[in-house]
Design brief:
alpha/beta, eight-stranded antiparallel sheet, 621 residues, 25 strands, globular
Length: 621
Amino acid sequence: MCGIVGSVSTRNIVPILVQGLQRLEYRGYDSCGVAVHAGGGLQRARSTSRVAELLEQVTTSRLEGHTGIAHTRWATHGAPAVHNAHPHFSHGPGADAAAARPGRVALVHNGIIENHEELRAALQAKGYVFASQTDTEVIAHLVDSLYDGDLFEAVKAAVVQLQGAYAIAVFHKDEPHRVVGSRAGSPLILGVGKEGGENFLASDAMALAGVTDQIVYLEEGDVVDLQLGRHWIVDRAHKPVTREVRTVQAHSGAAELGPYRHYMQKEIFEQPRAIADTLEGVEGIVPELFDGANAAAWRVFKEIDKVLILACGTSYYSGCAAKYWLEGIAKIPTQVEIASEYRYRESVPDPKTLVVTITQSGETADTLAALRHAQGLGMTHTLTICNVATSAMVRETELAYITRAGVEIGVASTKAFTTQLAGLFLLTLALAQSKGRLSDEQEAAHLKAMRHLPVALQAVLALEPQVIGWAEDFVRMENALFLGRGLHYPIALEGALKLKEISYIHAEAYPAGELKHGPLALVTAQMPVVTVAPNDALLEKLKSNMQEVRARGGLLYVLADADTRIESGEGIRVIRMPEHYGALSPLLHVVPLQLLAYHTACLRGTDVDKPRNLAKSVTVE
């Protein structure tokens, strides 16, 4: 959610700012805007439409400037409306903020300021007039109130007063060619330019793809000063620091649609390649697969005897599936917690627990906070399964496994989920081996199955025409139930989430054995029941649960393995999976559920890649 791009340059920076916003659209937003230093003052354009409409605005008005900031906003405080869109201006105390008088300070902000009401009251008492309901405008006025000829000093003084999470970029009309940024709890990077001494700020390296590959990842509490040909950083104590400049290849081509209708469809079909890339180089099961900078995995795996998984949303469901593997294969007691809940409850810490975080972006605010909470309780053995090697999560955990899903644009996660499952299965095998619970024969069999996954996934993707047939039924529905048992209950949860996220059909998932304990009351001919039916030890129990649905006139849609003897008939539609895949079956069964959600959403005409009210990278609590 929320994206930032900023720059100081000797060239017109507006095209680069807008292009950066286009590359950040995948994060989710409901308004956007750009502000520049031009004609000796500040000028801006804002829109509650897409970045394409903002581009039309700036082109028509010929907005140009050498210093500027831009933003995509996902609404928290205040409705999606132009007056709440960023950048925000401060006109100084006593000024009518809605008047034509040019602003003095321009500011964009990601995050949430928790003490904004207190600050707003103090600023109003000084004569500041507010034009929006946002917490962001508070920061703009605060910086203005502290400004005494040096923007860097004003921002340093302002951030000391902020409580909550923020990444900000700000410039002042009296200081051309200067942008100041700061971050705490929300990501912000510095891009060192290659032309004319220009420098950049962004919330994501992808925003600067093709502009610069020289990236500095700002740390918690950093304040950065950008000018032509120079930049400097102070830490949270306002002491000068040097941060490493890294070469980061953020390929813009990854965001191209190619022959696909939507990014989600493209990403569903990229899963065989994403799994192959994630497993590339895995020749054997060794703890060193998870080593961080200190090569500590072998020691850590020997010392721990429990696992605690922390995650949110889709990543939480991948953790729920991993619990079955970790306890069933590695024989390690495993607890899975929703990160936003874990950090606020009393728990019993155990230093012999491996804390595993799962996150696509590595910047998920709740998961980062939960990790820090666990570390604060003395649980120092930490590992992340993450798709971004340079993210805060990877930097803050002891061990890591980097999935290689590539850039995922669609808000509804697909390939990130399946690559997380692949990483978690490898973790299960590595822990089992370190505890002496994985024989050579078992290791060889599991590795063979994992290497075959890309081919197996291609066969599942070939079922798309049959899934479209299901979607033609679902398009008329407003509710759906998803059922699974054991290892496949989390897959039912993920299927229900996908359907509700992008088609806006209300969907819930249950362990099939729970059907008679309440949900069966909902079953009618207008309530489709999707059932994940692999040929495992729980199949006969699952068949009994399916009969409970049929006896009440419900409609069954079943993903069945070939040898389950479940056939299509009146009130039951079956898609037969190409092969039974044992412990790795969840990676195959989730794909038709992704396709079902996608094609149902297409038929209903929703915005598949950017569903309402949702964001890709959830960087606020």
